[in-house]
Amino acid sequence: MQNSPAVEVVGLVKRYGAKTAVDGLDLQVARGTLTAVLGPNGAGKTTTIETCEGYRRPDAGTVRVLGLDPVADAGRLRPRIGVMLQSGGIYSSARAEEMLRHTAKLHAHPVDPALLVERLGLGSCGRTPYRRLSGGQQQRLSLAMAVVGRPELVFLDEPTAGLDPQARHATWELVRELRADGVTVVLTTHSMQEAEELADDVAIIDGGRVIAHGSPEELCRGGAEDTLRFSGRPGLDLDSLLKALPPGSAASETGPGNYRVEGEVNPQMLATVTSWCAQHSVMPERIAVERRTLEDVFLDLTGKELRA
Amino acid sequence: MTATGTFTPRPGAAPIGRMIAAQTAFETRILLRNGEQLLLTVVIPALLLVLFSSVPVVDTGTGSRVDFLAPGVLALAVMSTAFTGQAIATGFERRYGVLKRLGASPLPRWALMTAKTGAVLLTEALQVTLLTVIALALGWSPQGSPLTVAALLLLGTAAFSGLGLLMAGTLRAEATLAAANLVFLLLLIGGGVVVPLDRFPDGAAAVLGLLPISALSEGLRDVLQDGAGVPWQQLGILAVWAVLGLGAAARFFKWE
């Protein structure tokens, strides 16, 4: 049991009436890792997470969380996981600190609520009823409630949606500390930056399936779409450069004296470009290598058009 | 980020008794904090008791007015907390995902319902104490066995809780809010609380007598005003409502 993955989803299907929200999804999360689940709205992220949390029964496929069935073994699983819903979940007249202290009382060995209040900057609003907290404060209280019970595994559904930069960094710090202390973290996000900053593994979901899975580096390396930019004399003849580069590379002058070379950027390619410049008596200035970001990968995979 | 050990996993539910006690205390605090709720559960019954005891607004029959009114107002207090208050609060908890979020906590559902019942009973104990003190000050002289009174109050609570939870678990929160208040008002007038049932036409009185509020207020009146023994008929009516209400709530309650 201890060696089973933290989360193991195989062939998950979930339908709501005629609509298929999740369509044969596979996902594996190793213990002690931080996995970011990325995807456009309506991709099936929340349905997948809520199935892992035991809220939904799969129409097909199997879901195991810490080796347990989230529905059948709910009583044994619930004390071991922490859950942050996408929104709500808190009594509207409960005060922030009171709510956190109460949640701590439901657990055997909770984190000191005062510590979480301080870490998440909830001290100034500790006596404010939930309904009068700002959106960011509500999010942070919800996060604190998810981790106060010292769970083995936490599910955070869009933990930084609507947070200002300070609050986002406080949340990231806390999530990194969870990970460092050995807690397995599964979070959903729209933010590529968040996934790149935090995640060991990224699963990109679209149309109810995982369409890409790997570390941020692996995903960004996946396509050969890196770019090298430099500037020099305007009007250089790029044909001879293209002949020197591996097949499939491209080069263009994007503006007078500004050049872009696309292809697999490696030391060999950089050397080819600079020696070509030397042959043509060009002093290349502002040489810059642009790696594909997770956002480029995401948009390549899921398309750029807006979803209904 | 280096490990600090603050969050090193050490999961586990608190002992079940401690969870239920904590949840009961928490639910009671939340319940008593709500201003509209207090109006309904404390202010209205107390005002009705004081006003109608001192001023002959309604004809309460022979005997002192407070002896007639106190049992009715106690029944009203039970209805306001177990039915109206609980339906509205639970309806909004469902709407705001509170019940959903608690579903992922170590607290089992049955323990949550136990805690909610505990909070209702604690609130009722406060109401009964306050109303008893006011009634005694107004010259109330209660008769009968306290045990029989307790049995009526408990069965009444079960009946009203079942109906309140059924409403909260099936209707939208706004619909529950409106319906629970409307039912409260209608039953206040037609349920033998302040207006004796025999003021209504015979046919109507017979039907009204089958309502849980009438069974509770008439049963309490039989014991407290007339010193009767065990009002089996009223206890029976309340028991049927309790079984039907709690059964339907258990069957149809939607948690989100």
UniProtKB/TrEMBL annotation, chain A:
- Provide the GO MF annotations for this entry: ATP binding
**Cell compartments where the protein resides:** Cell membrane
Note the Gene3D superfamilies from the entry: P-loop containing nucleotide triphosphate hydrolases (3.40.50.300)
Give start and end of each ABC transporter domain: 7-232
Q: What is the first-listed, main subcellular location in coarse terms? A: membrane
- Keywords annotated in UniProt: Antibiotic resistance, ATP-binding, Nucleotide-binding, Transport
Q: Show the CDD domains listed in the entry.
A: ABC_DR_subfamily_A
**What membrane topology was assigned to this protein in its record?**
Peripheral membrane protein
Q: Which Pfam families match?
A: ABC_tran (PF00005)
Q: What is this protein called?
A: ABC transporter ATP-binding protein
